[in-house]
Amino acid sequence: MKKNSPVSRSGRFARDPGTDVAQFTESISFDRRLWRHDILGSLAHAAMLRKIRVLTRAEANAIARGLDAVAREIVAGKFKWKPELEDVHMNIEVALTRRVPAGAKLHTARSRNDQVALDLRLWLRDEIVSLLGEIADLQRALVRLGEKNSDVIIPGYTHLQRAQPVYLAHHLLAYVEMLDRDCERLWDGWSRVNVCPLGSGAIAGSTLKLDRVLVAKLLGFVDAQGKPQLTQNSMDAVSDRDFAIEFCADAAILAMHLSRLAEDVILWASAEFNFIKIADAYTTGSSLMPQKKNPDVAELTRGKTGRVYGNLMSLLTLLKGLPMTYNRDLQEDKERLFDTADTVRASVRLMAAMLRHTAANRAACAVAASDPALLATDLADYLVRKGMPFRHAHHAVGAVVALAERTGKPLNRLTLAELQSVDKTFGRDALAVFDLRRAMAKRNLTGAPGTKEVAKQIARWQKQLS
Ligand code: ARG
To answer: pTM to 2 decimals?
Structure first.
């Protein structure tokens, strides 16, 4: 064997790749973060090779000890990653074989093609679980902010125009619902990540009698009933990246939700809305304007959504023209996948921390929510209760709004005579609809922002997230 050649070239190639080629083709600079999962996969593969007697007990034990030593070296920061060894798989295998000669048997019936698919699946499985934990934490922060301000009412908006009053908690719980769907999607995708590709070899499995079930069980590739989950087509297994694309798609939807939340936070923190105050630690100043306090955490969360979408597009484009099966193009999957996971994880975490350090500006919310126009629909409902068809009621209240505008009065300051000049159906009790607390008490359909219903939803989420 040539001494410094990549192990994958030692037999057939007369010359090493040029430096520029090595630099262009390496993945160690970014795939080294798969090292833990690469070693876990190798431990399982070695245990299986022992069972089918490709390795003796002594060899298998030596390999396990050697991999353990390599892991310690990596943790201690002492491992020397070599770019000329291309990727994490080669680096670890070469380091192992240097310590343990039996390491040369470890790659039996295994290719980097099924190995990298395995590592990615193992890595993504863990990543999804931690992301789910972070999302639950963000949900708790939203519920907590709503619950702390359970009596705060704000205008709800459509077209960014004031529409109807809602509890601040109701608005925040809307995001808790979105995040809950994100969790469902991620969990659902997890079951398709959780399938073991090892044993597929480079493309066509192996002539050796591997025990794929054992490997799957050792690595936890089992369903809820404990049934091993194995890929069923070796060609698909080495070239499939659906599980990564699916994660990136779920992450894109999650990022979109975070971005919408960020946008609301940014609006609410402006002087124009002034509904919330974000703690100083979660804002930044301007280098020029001394008075500025900017909601950068929210802005960057909104901004980073772009690259999460971009990563999804990159992966879809990466795969679309690939002939079967593995092609080196697939090495380009990792940075996009890692960046997606890192970006959404950090965004979720920082948004949660920021919300934990955000207070509602109760006075400003009360002023905004006291706009009687927010209850114009309640006035129409009043007429409906008196027997008027809704279309007529809508028209009558429209005329009342126009009258209020003409006379320069708020809606709730019109006299009975003025109301009756529009329609005789209005009675003395008409103006009572503008009592905001009473109006909120009336909206108790499931999912509506009524006082009781919102309390019920807060309690439901507290229980679910505890
Ligand atoms: N570094 C490669 C990747 O990330 C590992 C698989 C390489 N396989 C190969 N046949 N060159 O995709």
So the answer is: 0.95
